[in-house]
Each structure stands twice: as structure tokens, then as C-alpha cells.
């Protein structure tokens, strides 16, 4: 009977908590806000591409020699706008021939052109590129133009030479798939490693930030829920009707489910936005625009790992927050404990960010097993594809073992703390509560 | 089998909240637990419901110690009133009843019945934060009795209620008693206890002072009272001739006269007749509980000076000291 009663207590407390949370206005607004933010974040890659397109450098080419300007424009376009994949390119320049040098230079000043090149034939049959710019050309693009000028010069020179036994042959240039060694197929990413890795990092950052924020956020829900029960003085009625275990576990469960609901309500529209952004990108930028990069990294396995680490991590942090809240008397005191309580999470956040940048230093490997940190650090390693299966299994096992231990300690503190009023929350007080049970 | 408070001791740091407290409550009684603030009433109830642990001694019901009894044995109205502020009244009542194992539909039915009898049906869908203090108290009382516990432990249930609600609550107590429940309530209002209880225990600073049936307790000081009513002069000038008597309550109708130990009531009657007063009414009575309390404890019940460190906030301090 007692086992059944315990489950009943946990279920009732959890249900009450869940319903109260989900019905609250704060839940509605924070969900709307977070979902909106997530959709915006998901659409950022698309926005960046659109913005990038707008910053393609338009360069005017003027030459007194007939045909030279058009020839140079064609050559520059061929060499500087690399064809990355079938149908797509990293288009950085548009070259247009112009006839009036002064007008072209004026249009540089108005911003219509990023630069204007006046191509002059020197007496020694060489070529001189005079590039007029007013800050619209970055150093990297200026450098690219110089390389392009070199190519134009070589080709121009070879054309003027009498044919020889071994004429100048244009060097071959082809972008290949690093993993297969073959030419990249239609729609596939070129330079797979770099692009895919960048996508994985973006997804990893989003997931780590999301779990960091939500764990601390929902943790505070637990703490403030406990404090509210104390300040509204419903606590005494509560603990005379149910035992501390039911109250702590039920509260963690109820708020955890509410949090999970919110995370899903935030993630699903964001994922839909990612899927849609690929289609939007194709429509606006032409097929194969490469907008869907980040979606490729968001595998179901990674999402699954995120949810598992979120659930276990939440259970762990929520127990801490419940214990901390139980010793407070006033809602204002929540401010005092908020910072120290977030320290373990912050301490795990930094190795997580380092792990995302591909580092596998020893302290990151260690941190990825520590239960309070593994929800961030191991998740990062999984996101960038640098975690072995056994490492994930060990970190999960450690979490699964730690959660009940910390929860039991939290229940001890809670039992002693809930009827305590008026004492400032000091570490000594918590220690005594754990010891004294 | 009865409710036994068995040599209960509890110390909070330097303060002895309970000092070998012992008394017994017969089943089916309305029992008054009397004492000033800080006397140990709240601590005793908290030990019974398992919120606190005793240092020594135990509380038993039907022979079983409280630590082994299911929580639903007790219907507890804490002195610290509190409900979930944003939860609807009916939902809270059902929630607490369910925690005690009552099926939800039954809890709903019972809760509605109680709301009706407290003339508070309209409160069912209100949020607790919208209720007046008195109404919150009624809701908490219902929360304490919905699971039909055999023993009710009510900490200061009448404090803060208006006369109409005091009457409703008293009727509820008596009805619960008639249904076989044991009702223990603490109070520092002696008149309430006098009107309602079959037996009382007076405690002071965690120690038992006197306990038993109302009649025994009232006679425990050895003092007696007569109530007399005479035609003519109500000031009873002839009473000066009887040593060891004093008017404690003068009135047009009845005058209460207290007699010191050893003074016979007959002496008062004799003096009246000797003085030629026409006696309309003469009655022997016991002193009021208030008087008994003063005699035993040495001060009135609502005088607050005594306790050492935790006198500031009697309800908070014991728990705050629990870790010391």
C-alpha cells in the first residue's frame, strides 16, 4: 500500500505542478518568446545568404582597346567566381564592361559599383590595371582581383606570342569531395568537412545554449515553486498530507514535464523553419543555394541525445534547486541563491564551447564525464562528432547513478528546510540540513 | 483506545518546547488543548502529524505510535494557514483529499457538501488569493476533514473567525464528534473551550499543568463560586461580613462571588438572609477556566512575557531552531 501511496503522491503533486505551470501566463509568454527567437535563429543562415548576395562586388571594367574590357571581364569571372558544385557557385563578383571611365568612377563614388577598373595597354604590350575604389572593396577581394589580373595578363601575353611547340596551357582546377575523392555530385556540399563541420558547430551551439538556459531556467522554477509554497504557508498542510520524497520528486517531475513541453514547443517550429528555409533559399537564390547546411547536421540521433541529456541534467539540477529553495523564507532570497546555483552549470558551459570548436583536451574529456557537466560537454562532443559510443554510455551511466543520490540529499535538506523560516541561506545551514536530515 | 501523549519532550536549542508532556484524550471527545503562545501546542501537533520528531516520548493512537500511523489518520489544521494562491478552491480541496487517498469524484462531492454547509458554495471556483482570511480558514478546515480522519488536530481553529463562522465551526465540531471522530483543538480562548470541550489539558512552557474533564479541571483549584441574585440592592453590602469572599462579576441579574478554600457556600446564603435580603436565585458554580488558568499558571493566558529566545515568533522559532 505504501508503495502505491508513494506513487500516487508523486503523480498528484506532479500533475498539479504541471497544470499550474502550463496554465500560467508566464508559461504562455515565455513559450511564445522562445519559439519566436528559435525561428529567427533557424532562419539566420538564410538571411546571411540573402545578405551575402546583396554584397556581391560589382566591378566596372573600362578599356580604350576594343574587346579588351569584355575579354578581361569574362576571364575574371571565370577565375574568381569558383564553381563549387553543380549549378552553384560562390559568386563574389559581377563584372560589367563600361565605356566611360569618368562615369564609372563616379558610380563607384555613389556606391553603384564597388570598384572600377581601367585597363590600359602599356607601350611594351603589357597590361595595367588601375583599380578605383572608395572602400567598397575589402582587402581579400582586392587580393582576389590581383590574382585575376595576373591570369588576364598571362592569357593576354600567350595570345600575342607566336605558336610554339609547347604553348601555355591553362592549369586545371576542380573541387573534389574530400571523403570520396570523386567529383561532388549534384546538390552535394563541396569541401564536405569544412561546411558540414560548421553546420555541426552551429547546431551544437544552439543545443548547448538551449540546454544550459533551460536547465537554469527550469531549475529556478523549481526553487521558486518551493519558496512560494513556503511563503504562502501551504507547506505545512502539504507535508502533513504527503511525505517529502513525494513532494520533491513530484515537483521535479511536474516542472520537468512542463519544461520538456516548452522545449518541444520551441524546437518544433524552429526545425520546421530550418526545413522551410532550405525551400525558401532554393526559391529565392536558385536551386542548390546551400542554405540547408545546418539542417544536415541535426540528425535524429543528436536530437535524441539532446533530449536524454536534457532530462537527466534537469533531474540533477532540479534536485539542487529544490533543496536550495527549501531553506529560503522569502521570494527575494531567490536572487541570493540564483548566482551560486548557476556556477556548476556555467563551469560546464565553457568546456562545452571549447569542445564545440573541436578541442579534445584532457580536461574536456574529463568534464564530459562529470554528471553536472556532461549534459553540456558530452552533448557538444556528440554534436561535432567527436565522442565514442562507450564514452557516451559511461557519461549516461554516471548521470543515472548520480541523479538519485543527489535527489536523496535534496530530500534530506528539504525535509529539514521547509519548516524553517527567517534564517538567511548560508552554506553552513545547508550542510547542517544535510547532516541533520 | 485513545489518543495518548506519552512523556513527550522536544528541545529547540536552548528552549524546551515540550517537557515530559503527558495526557490522554478519550476517543469521540472534543478536547481542548489550552495554553498561551509558546506553550507547546503547535509543537505537539506537528509531532503527531510527523512534521517534527520528538526528542523523547511518543504519541499513540489506538496503541500505535504516530510514526507508524498513516498520514490520513490525522485531519490537521495548521496554525500557519495557507493555500495555493492561484488554485481554485475546489481543485485544492480535491488535491489534498486525493493526497490522502480519497477518490477524486468522491472528494469533489464531499467538498461541495462541506462548502454548502459552510454557506460557501460560491467560493468553489474562486482562487484562494481572492478569499478573505475567514473564508480561507473555512476552506482549510474542509481540507483537513475531507478524508474523514479519525482524529482532528486543529491549531487555533477559531482565531480570526467572525461570530457567525465561529458558530458554524462549533456545530461542525460537535457533528464530527457525534460521527465518532476525536476532535483536539488548541486555543487560548478559554470561553470557547468551556463551551465546547468535554475535557481539556492546560499546558504551560511545555509542561502539563492540569488536565481532565472540564468539571474536574474547574474544581482543581479548590476554589468555588456562588451565583446569587437578590431583590433590591445588587451591590450585596452584607457580603463584607463573610470573610474569604469576593465579587468577581457584578450584575443586575446574577452576581458571581468567589469563595476562598474552606469558605462554605452556606455562609453566603446565611449572611444574605441575616441581612434581610430577599434571595431570588442561589447557585453553586465552579470557577471559570480563565480563573483556573490564572490560579495554576500565575498569569492570564494572553499575557506574553515568559518564554526565553523563541518567544518572538512562537510558530517560526521552533522549526528555525530545529537544526541547532
Describe the protein in words.
Chain A is an alpha/beta fold and 437 residues long. Chain A has 2 domains: 2-50 and 192-436, no CATH class; 55-160, D-Maltodextrin-Binding Protein, domain 2. Chain A has helices spanning 2-23, 25-54, 68-80, 101-110, 139-160, 192-231, 235-241, 244-285, 293-297, 300-326, 334-356, 362-367, 374-383, 389-417, 427-436, and strands at residues 57-63, 93-98, 115-121, 127-133. A 4-stranded mixed sheet of chain A has the order 2-1-3-4, with helices on both faces. In chain A, 38% of the residues are buried. The model of chain A is unreliable at 183-193 (pLDDT under 50). Chain B has 324 residues and is α/β, with parallel strands linked by helices. Chain B folds into 2 domains: 3-215 and 314-319, P-loop containing nucleotide triphosphate hydrolases (Rossmann fold); 222-286, Alpha-Beta Plaits. Helices cover 31% and strands 27% of the residues of chain B. Chain B has 10 helices and 14 strands. Chain B has helices at 41-49, 89-99, 104-117, 133-145, 163-178, 190-196, 214-219, 265-274, 289-297, 317-320, and strands at 3-12, 15-25, 30-34, 56-61, 64-65, 74-77, 151-155, 182-187, 199-204, 207-213, 224-231, 245-249, 255-259, 278-285. In chain B, the strands form 3 sheets. A 6-stranded mixed sheet of chain B has the order 6-7-8-3-9-10, with helices on both faces. Chain B has a 4-stranded antiparallel sheet with strand order 2-1-4-5. In chain B, strands 12-13-11-14 form a 4-stranded antiparallel sheet, with helices on one face. The longest helix of chain B has 16 residues, at 163-178. The model of chain B is unreliable at 305-324 (pLDDT under 50). Chains A and B meet through helix 1, helix 7 and helix 15 of A and helix 2 and helix 4 of B.
Amino acid at each position: 500500500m505504501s508503495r502505491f501511496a508513494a506513487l500516487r503522491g508523486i503523480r498528484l503533486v506532479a500533475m498539479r505542478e504541471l497544470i499550474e505551470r502550463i496554465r500560467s501566463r508566464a508559461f504562455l509568454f515565455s513559450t511564445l518568446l522562445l519559439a519566436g527567437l528559435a525561428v529567427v535563429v533557424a532562419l539566420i543562415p538564410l538571411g546571411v545568404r540573402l545578405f551575402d548576395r546583396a554584397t556581391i562586388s560589382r566591378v566596372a571594367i573600362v578599356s580604350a582597346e576594343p574587346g579588351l574590357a569584355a575579354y578581361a571581364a569574362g576571364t575574371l569571372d571565370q577565375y574568381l567566381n569558383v564553381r563549387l558544385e553543380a549549378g552553384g557557385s560562390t559568386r563574389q563578383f559581377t563584372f560589367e564592361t563600361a565605356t566611360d571611365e569618368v562615369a564609372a568612377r563616379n558610380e563607384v563614388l555613389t556606391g553603384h559599383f564597388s570598384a572600377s577598373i581601367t585597363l590600359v595597354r602599356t607601350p611594351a604590350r603589357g597590361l595595367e590595371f588601375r583599380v578605383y575604389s572608395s572602400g567598397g572593396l575589402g582587402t581579400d577581394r582586392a587580393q582576389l582581383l590581383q590574382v585575376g589580373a595576373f591570369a588576364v595578363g598571362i592569357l593576354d601575353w600567350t595570345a600575342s606570342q607566336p605558336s610554339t611547340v609547347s604553348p601555355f596551357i591553362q592549369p586545371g582546377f576542380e573541387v573534389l569531395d574530400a571523403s570520396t575523392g570523386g567529383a561532388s555530385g549534384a546538390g552535394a556540399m563541396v569541401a564536405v568537412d569544412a561546411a558540414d563541420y560548421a553546420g555541426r558547430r552551429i547546431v551544437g551551439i544552439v543545443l548547448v545554449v538551449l540546454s544550459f538556459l533551460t536547465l537554469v531556467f527550469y531549475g529556478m522554477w523549481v526553487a521558486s515553486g518551493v519558496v512560494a509554497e513556503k511563503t504562502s504557508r501551504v507547506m505545512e498542510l502539504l507535508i502533513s498530507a504527503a511525505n517529502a520524497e513525494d513532494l520533491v520528486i513530484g515537483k521535479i517531475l511536474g516542472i520537468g514535464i512542463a519544461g520538456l513541453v516548452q522545449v518541444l514547443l520551441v524546437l518544433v517550429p524552429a526545425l520546421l523553419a530550418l526545413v522551410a528555409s532550405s525551400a525558401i533559399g532554393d526559391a529565392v537564390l536558385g536551386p542548390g543555394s546551400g542554405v540547408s547546411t545546418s539542417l544536415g547536421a541535426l540528425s535524429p540521433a543528436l536530437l535524441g541525445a539532446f533530449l536524454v541529456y536534457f532530462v537527466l541534467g534537469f533531474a540533477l539540477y532540479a534536485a539542487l534547486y529544490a533543496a536550495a529553495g527549501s531553506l529560503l523564507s522569502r521570494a527575494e532570497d531567490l536572487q541570493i541563491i540564483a548566482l551560486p546555483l548557476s556556477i556548476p552549470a556555467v563551469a560546464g558551459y565553457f568546456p562545452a564551447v571549447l569542445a564545440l570548436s573541436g578541442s579534445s583536451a584532457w580536461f574536456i574529456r574529463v568534464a564530459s564525464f562529470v554528471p553536472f557537466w556532461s549534459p553540456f560537454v558530452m552533448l557538444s562532443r556528440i554534436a561535432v562528432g567527436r565522442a565514442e559510443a562507450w564514452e557516451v554510455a559511461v557519461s549516461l551511466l554516471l548521470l543515472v547513478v548520480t541523479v538519485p543520490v543527489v535527489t536523496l540529499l535534496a530530500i534530506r535538506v528539504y525535509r529539514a528546510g521547509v519548516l524553517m523560516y527567517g534564517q538567511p541561506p548560508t552554506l553552513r545551514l545547508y550542510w547542517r540540513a544535510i547532516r541533520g536530515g | 483506545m485513545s489518543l495518548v501523549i506519552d512523556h513527550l519532550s522536544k528541545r529547540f536549542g536552548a528552549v524546551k518546547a515540550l517537557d515530559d508532556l503527558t495526557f490522554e484524550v478519550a476517543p469521540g471527545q472534543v478536547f481542548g488543548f489550552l495554553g498561551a503562545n509558546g506553550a507547546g501546542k503547535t509543537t505537539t501537533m506537528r509531532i503527531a502529524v510527523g512534521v517534527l520528531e520528538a526528542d523523547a516520548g511518543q504519541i499513540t493512537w489506538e496503541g500505535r505510535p504516530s510514526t507508524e500511523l498513516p498520514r490520513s489518520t490525522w485531519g490537521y489544521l495548521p496554525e500557519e494557514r495557507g493555500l495555493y494562491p492561484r488554485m481554485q478552491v475546489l481543485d485544492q480541496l480535491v488535491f489534498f483529499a486525493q493526497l490522502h487517498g480519497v477518490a477524486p469524484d468522491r472528494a469533489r462531492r464531499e467538498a461541495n457538501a462541506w462548502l454548502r454547509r459552510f454557506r460557501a458554495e460560491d467560493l468553489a471556483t474562486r482562487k484562494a488569493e481572492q478569499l478573505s482570511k475567514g473564508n480561507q480558514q473555512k476552506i482549510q478546515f474542509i481540507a483537513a476533514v475531507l478524508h474523514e480522519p479519525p482524529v482532528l488536530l486543529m491549531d487555533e481553529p477559531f482565531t480570526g473567525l467572525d461570530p457567525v463562522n465561529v458558530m458554524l465551526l462549533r456545530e461542525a465540531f460537535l457533528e464530527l464528534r457525534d460521527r465518532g471522530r476525536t476532535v483536539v483543538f488548541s486555543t487560548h480562548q478559554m470561553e470557547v473551550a468551556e463551551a465546547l470541550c468535554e475535557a481539556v489539558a492546560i499546558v504551560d512552557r511545555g509542561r502539563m499543568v492540569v488536565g481532565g474533564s472540564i468539571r474536574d479541571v474547574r474544581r482543581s483549584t479548590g476554589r468555588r463560586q456562588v451565583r446569587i441574585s437578590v431583590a433590591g440592592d445588587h451591590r450585596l453590602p452584607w457580603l463584607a461580613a463573610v470573610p474569604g469572599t469576593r465579587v468577581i462579576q457584578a450584575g443586575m441579574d446574577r452576581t458571581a462571588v468567589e469563595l476562598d478554600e474552606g469558605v462554605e457556600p452556606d455562609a453566603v446564603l446565611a449572611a444574605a438572609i441575616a441581612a434581610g435580603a430577599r434571595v431570588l436565585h442561589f447557585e453553586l458554580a465552579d470557577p471559570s477556566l480563565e480563573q483556573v488558568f490564572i490560579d495554576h499558571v500565575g498569569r492570564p493566558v494572553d499575557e506574553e512575557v515568559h518564554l526565553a529566545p523563541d518567544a518572538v515568533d512562537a510558530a517560526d522559532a521552533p522549526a528555525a531552531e530545529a537544526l541547532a
